[in-house]
């Protein structure tokens, strides 16, 4: 699974990946299964 932002366009929905190396996906129907509300990152050793 990857994190995507969605944008409503005239006749479709654009799913824009958070990773700039990946291409967007265009769909007509979509089901949102969750929402990211926070992010915790660890730097260095655990």
From TrEMBL:
Residues 1-37 form the Peptidase S24/S26A/S26B/S26C domain. Pfam families: Peptidase_S24. Transmembrane segments: none annotated. This is LexA repressor. It comes from the Bacteria.
